Amino acid sequence: MFLAHITDFGQQSLQEHCQNSANIAKNDLTDIGLSNTAYLAALFHDCGKAHDVFQQYLIDSYNGKNVKRGSVIHSFAGVSYFLNKYHDSDNVIEKAASEIIAYSIGAHHGLFDVINPDAKDGFLYRLTRQLEYDDTAIHNFLKEIVDESIVSEVFGSSSNEMERILKIIPNITKKNSGSEYCFYLGLLCRLITSAVMDGDRTDTANFTLNKDYNNAKTSYNPWKEINDNIERRIHSFSSETLINKSRRELSDLCFDFAKSDSGIYRLNIPTGGGKTLSALRFAAAHALQKEKQKVIYIAPLISILEQNANEIRVSVGAEYVLEHHSDVITETDDVEELDLRKYLEDSWNSPVIATTFAQFLNTLFSSKTSSVRRFQSLCNSVIIIDEIQSVPSKMISLFNQAVNFLSRICKCTVLLCSATQPCLESVEHRMIIDGDIISKDDFNKYSEIFKRNSVMDAGNFRLEEIPSFIIDKANNHLSLLVVCNKKAQAEFLFNEIKSQAQNCFHISAGMCVAHRKNVLKKIKELLSKKEPVFCVSTQVIEAGVDISFDCAIRFSAGMDNIIQTAGRCNRNGECRSDSPVYIIHCIDENLKMLPDIQAAKQATEALIVDFKKRSDYYSNDLASDNSINFFYKYLYSNYSSNHFDYPIKNMPSLFELLSANNQYRSLSKSAQYFLCQSFKTAGDKFDVFDSVSTSVIVPYGDGKNIINNLQSYYNDKDYPALQKEMKKASQYSVSVFEYQFKKLLEEKAIIPFCDNSFYMLSPEYYDDNTGLLNKAKEENTCSTLIL
Questions:
Q1: What CATH number should be reported for the domain holding residue 389?
Q2: Fewer beta carbons within 10 Å, N or C terminal of the chain?
Q3: How far is it, in rounded angstroms, from Cα 57 to Cα 72?
Q4: How many CB atoms sit inside 10 A of residue 631's CB?
């Protein structure tokens, strides 16, 4: 008997593990009609373990002998079997099926490049690396684990599945776009690989931890209870005022739309219209009516997620919700609870998932196995993407094609939520949008009801002139918010105004999260008492912050940012008339290092010029639907042709690497495969955030104690306590860009500790008002580098 695993609980046979893994993978993709393909790939994923050499390696490893991890390669045999057995077929569907199954087997411990930047062939390497070993393993596997006649039968069913999928892909591909076709084929490959990874890891966890995590999957349909909970929540709100009545009407429109077919829909609800609950109501009702597996809520920032995840838990029922992001702190020492939590985070097996853009985008594109594994869990779901305009412009091609794939191949319904909807259908690699949940007429009607401020152009200023403008406006308003593009601007204005204004505050990313929260708490307390408040901030205040000022001033930027700032002005309708939101153009502003803000600012300024010529077209409103459309179309048309394809320095774009891969394919001697993507290279290069940064713990508040605790737990090797303290440390840390980190390290402002595992900031480099400084306090010099 060949073994797959040995633990203190006992031995697991290779036959049991492969069969269990295959059944789990099959279950993962049954809803979307790829069960046989997933089953077959997972069945053969450990084919290479059916060899005496691997069996001895397994025994030696368990007995504590000094064996080199990975010295016996077991992932090549299955690749060899399917390519040698089926790839010579005259049937192109069978060729494609054999490649995708072979890749998924070969990548079940990590993605690899079919063609890498050196033009090396990943399949050829796996076919020729250990011929004798693989032949023996295949022979043993077919003799003892599975009969080849069953393999042939299931492969025939798999080919039928592939034929159906490959007929759908041309319908979602731009005419004559080979790159889009290849991109979708690559996503299909990632999907099967994901199911294999999930099958393998779930069964391995079941055995090695002596658990049965299959039971953690939803074994019944929870949507009736979830819908009942949401309806009770909806009807608990009063509908007496016009605002509350309008919120209910918008929510009802979303509920009624839930009977629509699966697809990609825009949800455009005015600020203050109850977008989150309306979206959730649609999603739960749609999941019930269309038998969806789960609802996934995605927010661009952890601050927005934390705020809305609480509303989701209250509305849905906490037992149905998994909140997953980097700052979640698990308040339990129970090993079984921690194991289950880890399983749920890795597999996303929960009816309602609340997560971030970063987690979602990594699930789609990162090479990390934890990210790849989660991809299959998106199938047959309702996906709510909040603040859709926050998708980085350089990722739009990748994102659009992935959402199309999720909708048309994975049977997902995708909800694009925003008060400033980007024109994702107007770029080269477009998103296929099926319609709007709220009609344009209804949106315009409710926009008037929820209108609480007016966006207006205030003209051009030098930075040194802006404090006078702010003070002038402050004389007419009890509270005022100024949002800058750069931290240096915010610091300058704060220092200029603080002596002239009562209760002046500064907020920026140079302050740790705990610091920002404390400042916001003070501001809210003063606002509630109707006392004067002046806040100068960077764009960190624009989203996920429930706060309201009487007046707002925004440095010219993208209209999406300006509308976000407007959302912090007269947010709750506390002012009797429209509150002003002024756009100011800082003419001596240098945005060279911020090209996206610069491009968006130019698009806004073009809109303002056109607005002055034909304000009637824009309904005399810079925040109107037509204004937003003009802004995005102008913005997108002025980017270079490959900007949206995630360009990489000295390499083809990420979109190219994941699609036709023409540059590397032309250099390769092997061109016999449909697959040609540099999956691993692309996944390694993918990064949600533009800049490489390092997290540094600052000596603010509990930060000092956390630094001491980390050192103590590290010295004592108390890793569970260390992990908890690391989560807490995220609230007392700032992100420092690479060039800045080097500079501060040279100045001994940043101090490594715990054998360079963590970094702390010297106290004289952190200011109680403005946070991180580039120079020690006594030099009284403000940062000009932190954004």
A1: 3.40.50.300
A2: N
A3: 7
A4: 26
